[in-house]
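[audit] Reproducing an earlier prediction to check determinism. Same input, same settings, fresh worker. If the tokens differ from the archived copy the diff job will pick it up downstream; this log only records the rerun itself.
[audit] input (752 residues):
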Amino acid sequence: MSVSIEIKGNLAKLLATEDLIIEHKAVETAEFNVKTRVLVLPVWDKASEFVYDMLVAHEVGHALFTPKREWFYEPEFKTVPFDYVNVVEDARIERLIKQRYRGLNRDFTKAYAELNNDDLFEIADKNVNWLKPIDRINLYFKIGNFVDIEFNDIENEFVTRISRCETFDEVLQISKDIHEYTKEVQEEMQREVAMNPTSSEAGDNGEVLKVETRPDMSQSKDDAETDNSVDDTNNQGEDTTEASNNESSISEENDDSEDGDSPEFSNSQGGEFGNIETSNTQRSINNNLEDLTNTYKDQIPTTYVTVPEIVSEKVVIKFDHVKSYLDNHFIEHNTNDNNQAFIDEHTKTFREFKKSSNKEVNYLVKEFEMKKSADSYSRQATAKTGMLDTSKLHTYMYNEDIFKKVTTIPEGKNHGLVFILDWSGSMNGILPDTLKQLFQLVWFCKKVQIPYEVYAFTNDSWMLDPDTSNIDPDDYRRRSKVSDQLLVKEWRENDIQVDGSFRMVNILSSKQRSKDVDKMMLNLWMTCESFSYRNHGLYFSHPRKFTLSGTPLNEAIIASKSLVNDLMRTSGVQKCHVIMLTDGEAHHPSYNVDRSKMHHDFDLDYKGSKSIHSQCMLRNKRTSKTYSLSHSNATQRLIECVKDDLPNVSFIAFRIVERGGLRYVYNQYGFDTYDTYEQMKEEIKKGNLSLTMRSFDKFFMIPQQHLHVDSDVLDQVQEGSAKKDVSRAFRKMFKNKKTNKFMLSEFAKQIA
């Protein structure tokens, strides 16, 4: 049977009427953690639909009704066998779950019929009425509709009590009473055998004999049927038999069993009666149910990892602090004429760029307003009212449309923008051109009044707290301590690890004054230029806290949830767009592991981590939806998980692709949609730079060579050049301009 584990997981949650955490793992038996509310289910891939549903309902019954209680340490019940409690508790929770959901009666009946037909209780060659009391009770409550089971009056009383018990305390007491009764039966058997050693009669296949221990225990079949009103299922009393027919021989070698051991007895034919501390039928069904998961037995158990909740106050470096730091840097390190020349030069180039961009941004604003109006018109609806249009009354003989109409235009949603910029080392060569596109996008948002926040993700020097900024960033002992900082609400095992050095630097914000935003843009412009040695001999030491870092992209995605919620809460926007710009892929993700469990000799609080592997599943804590997870798809699955928590948020990616880097894009993102690398490549050859992705709402590729804009194309045309050369230069200029505002244009289309 092909099983949808997600559907079965949803079934379990529906039955439980709570948002249980369902985990399907390569395990032999189900288990439920009462504290964490995690229900672990095997994947019964060989089970029928009825059996699977019955098993799920059974485990949910335990989740709902079985308390977390270490009863086996309680003096009163310390000697009660686990099997006895399991049998009685199974009967109780199955009755309760069927009472809550009447439709489950059919599932249980059909499922147990299948299990009986397949002989999973292993009773096909046995006389069930010669089994131990606990085994007959187990069979009665599970397959009593299909097997005739007999009880004496004491056993009938047990059945009645089980069928009516409501609490776990009752379960324990009944289990204790059955166990004590079984011991009395066994002792009586020993005495009878000792008194009549030549007489023996063993049960089929050596199972424990059912005997009468006292005269008052016997009961006629008719009396049993009269007295037992427990259930409508096959519940019959026991025929009265002579004691001589119940006698058996017990081998003398077991008489010397040590105190505390459960004695085992043998009949004269060499068969074993078995251990009275166990339920043979319960162990048989448990063992055979394990075979329903045979396909998964050799697999590594699945690890379910979850997304932690970031504390934004610990992760975000606020705009005011960033601006203050950069302002001070370019003041304090301006120590000579060369430094001042650097500032003057790049202040001039920044202002020229802003002026030249103004026309393009304004044009796009007009284009945006036109598209927005057209969309609003397309969404308007016209409806007839119940009022007559007096201007049309004269046309009533040939026109049925004589009623007034009302036109409604749905309100468009307010939009917001969260921009996430890659501040890694590989961005060095393209960072200035990237900032140009970013600045145009910010100016556009400002003109059309779209709230925005721009963050640069890093895992380098911003880990130093503002009050410890005087500490040398190269002090790796300090850095290692800081990297252990907890940036999430709480450390939880199996949460995706977020390194303590990760930060989101708020470099631009619509909450700030226009002059502060302009000054910040200039600071960023000069910071990027300080990384370059192409400044005509001009130089300036780069800000140490803005050192280019690694690529904590996955951490940025995790943090985006909090950042988006903050923006939507403070600005009142209804729909938010998360734009991510990067030129590479994220680090290999890991998840939290409590390694103190491995050091039993030490009282340690050792928090470690483990790399994501092929048997990992990403689970959404809120929806409990799961996503297959691996190193190659981690970024996409994280986005899917975060999006499920943010229904009014779209994720747009701009992936800068270096020469020869298309293969990396396919391996990381394209394989979800395209069967082969060649198929994706053909799409790009057609000029389609927007790829379909499973996770991103839009995924754009920007060839690295197109990112740089040559604004002096026409200047390169020599006087007296041929007409075709001039024409070619004009085409190149317009193409560059289109590329220059590519990111801005695509964003405008998304929100228009």
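[audit] rerun output stored. Observation attached for the diff report: Residues 200-273, 407-412, 463-480, 709-718 have pLDDT under 50 and may be disordered.
[audit] end
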